[in-house]
User: Fold these one by one.
Assistant:
Number 1:
Amino acid sequence: MDSSKDGKAEMLFLPWILARGHMIPVIDTARVFAAHGAKVTIITTPGYAQLFQKSIERDQSLLGHHDISFHTFKLPTAEVGLPEGCENLLSTALDRDMSEKLFSAISKLEKPIEQLLRERRPDCLVSDMFYPWTADVCAQLGIPRIVFHVTGLFPLCCEESVRRYAPHEKVNYDTETFALPGLPDDNIKFNKLKLPYWFKTKGTGWGQLLDIFLEAELKSYGIIINSFYDLEPTYAEHYKNEMGRKLWLVGPVYLFNKAAEEKADRGEKNSIDGGTVLSWLDTKKPNSVIYVSFGSQVRMAPKQFLEIAHGLEASGCPFIWVARDLSKSNEEDKEKREGGEGENGDKMLPDGFEERMTKSGHGLIVRSWAPQLLILEHVAVGGFMTHCGWNSTIEGIGAGIPMITWPLAAEQFFIESLVTDVLKTGIRVENEEWVSLHWEPKVTVTREKVEKAVKWLIGGDGGDQVVEMRRRAREMAEKAKKAMDYGGSSDAAVIALINELKSRQSVCE
Ligand code: UDP
């Protein structure tokens, strides 16, 4: 046995570095495995390591000396004509030119990472799907590659259904409804407008990349998912049996964060401190506040901001709104943004809105990054208007809160369907059109739709249906906690994978 491993399973984690939605769950997952006795190394850049350093130090020292550390590589940004540290900006993925250059800088890390794998010979590499090249490197070195998917099984099964059966090719017009074939539920209905463009223009752009990711996945040892069995049991079976993948459901990993500082401090500096948000929430009645946030990478038209603002004000319900617009997140534009103006001087908030909301205590507007976990857990928060990113969704599920779904891009319309059609713990705001983060944003949801959905969920219009929805949401939250607790399904999956990796050590020696 390799003495440097102290009889432990050695796991290397390689998160994708251009998105908080990829980085946050991988870091939490790595921490969970370390807490279960694995020797864990997270490969990232110094800037990202810094963002998560506090949590890792806490794990290393206070919490029973977990064997977890970072191995950092500096991203050669200068070589591709970018300023140092720009990979850490929230807006990078939205700037097409910058993200293409960053992809190229990341590809220059392939050799050093391969070298690290050769030296360390870990028991596995947990790789974000965005690094397909790790499949061949791991195969050459005999290291199991385990893919980390930053989404759930339901959306993955929906994607596979579209890929296999192409139901959208059998309809006559964009809004014609079709069912997604071959899924455990037969009520999953879509239309072409809600599908990502890459299903409609096969083999190009992002679609081409996804084919490469899939090819790499098929060569891999298995898959880790930040979900739990009771959330999507039929889809877990479907994924294993129909799609033939080896699977470990280990989440919701965010529940590993127990201390208030860990919940408050995740992946970015908050633009409002946890204490201020909690004091504001303490003044509100239980289930009376709607939390509105669209994740880490939202890009919306100034007029869409206006519609949200009018809709929230007209609903009469208290709200916390993370009103960040990344298309203007550089310093030059910061001033404008704070003055409530969009890119072209367009107004983003109605006259006097922020002042009115602050004075009346009706609304709290967060300009950049909010302590989301703290907010979702507060008893005053009765609903979450979300873009249906997987992390936000699983955080909302874990907090036991019903949602108003407002999907925008990526696989978010599939996740909306999970929440509204399968779990029945949310309602649609009725956004009808998929848009890429790189397309010119436009208004797709009117103020009336925002007002109606908020009044239904928070303002009492939904009556007994909301009471029932809350009951279902709370029940699922209980199941989420049980899954992560000692002896739960996710806890067992983590132990099973560690044991499997250890048993391979003796076979491989
Ligand atoms: N997040 C946060 N504060 C914010 C915005 C986002 O803490 O103001 C966190 C959120 O809790 C989640 C992640 O960032 O863990 C966003 O991931 P998600 O998959 O929901 O969306 P994405 O940003 O990938 O679209």
Note: The chain is about 45% helix and 10% strand.
Number 2:
Amino acid sequence: RDAQACIAKQASRKNLNAFISLAEKTAVLKAAEDADRGSVQGPLAGRLIGVKDNISTSDLPTTCASGILQKYTSPYDATVISKLRQAGGIVAGKTNLDEFGMGSHSKHSFFGPVVQENGDNTMRSVGGSSGGSAAAVATGQCWAALGTDTGGSVRLPAAYTGIVGFKPSYGLLSRWGVVAYANSLDTVGILSQSSVDSKQIFDVLSGYDPRDPTSLPKSTRARISKFAGKRFQRGPLRIGVPAEYNITTLSPTVHSSWISTLSYLQAQGHTIHHVFLPTTKQALSAYYVLAPAEASSNLAKYDGVRFGTRAEGPDGATSVLFSATRGQGFGDEVKRRILLGAYTLSADAIDNYFIQAQKVRRLVQRDFDKAFRSPNPLHEEEIDSGEATENEGVDVLVCPTAPTLTPTIEDLDAQNPLDAYKNDVFTVPASLAGLPAISIPVTVPEANEKVGIQVIGQFGHDELVLDIGSIIE
Ligand code: GLN
């Protein structure tokens, strides 16, 4: 189905740098023909799907856009890739990203930045870190793509490229074979042209995986379906508008598209309610303590001995070899995260940074639980004892995905690392709480732009979030 058209686009939009490696053309076309003839079946039969290059595939390299893994090919497929293939999906290629998923503009890549055209010969950011996946879907180089979202890396690129980006609840999709950035936050996410397409892929990928210790077991999945997903049968939804997201630096165009989305939902019969998430202000800082801390520990294994390219010259298992390998192999942003993480975990700093950030994380989770009508299915005892009941809270939250419109490459050149971190202010709270969240492109006629509007649901309410996404779309 349109495989030929995707392949043509991959050639004509090569300048965007969306892919690091492409699947072999004849094999892709043959697989697509098999699907057309009906000899391959499944919900994704014949669909070309781009895969972020931090998700392991046995037939193409998995570089994480890092110099240190530039020649690495995994001996196995990640669980999500096996599931895609079983459903008839075709891996189109591996998409470019910020090295190891660290960044918000897909410019920190060993293979060069990903960009999108602005229409006037200038270039714009595609967002990050799953920017290659977003650019590939937005320009028709594949039907849909997988990304990973640790603190917004699927939602932000979707918002900046005008497509749909869905981050499921933490633990629903297997992380086995997904290269870890920050384990407690990492989720596989989906980039597509519509919520319906995302749902189709989500249904294929969601499931318990015994090889991933954080995969939600069947009992939790059963508890989720007890409360989630039945909203539409019960009449109008209660839509929450978090006051803390109305920040002074919010772009006026983003603000007006937020308001028009809320008016539209109201016109459909749903009701709008103000909610308060007081810890939102601390969430970003907590994220940028926790994520680098986990990263510094995860990246310790790239030492030139067990994984990755080894520096020329020094030999033997000495610190000289390690530091030469890591010094040459990692890019600047990754080094910055390792330093940050190693510092906040150090004996002198851990109490003031890491421990505090973990406390903030609990408060962020509590804010959300207070706001939602449904109880959190992770609070097993309360639910199983029948203690948990629905309250006067809201069904979902609706807010912008990013505070500004898509920045130009020129804008980025004027930014420091902290400015880039600030882009994630609206996406990290849902990540800290593990909640499902989707970014939907909303057209703003007066600005000739698409703005990403985010829908966040209670843990496990992934289907509701996808359904509301398709109402807004
Ligand atoms: N921009 C955030 C970071 O750099 C989010 C990254 C992600 O979700 N992978 O950490």
Note: The chain has two domains: 3-220, 226-285+353-472.
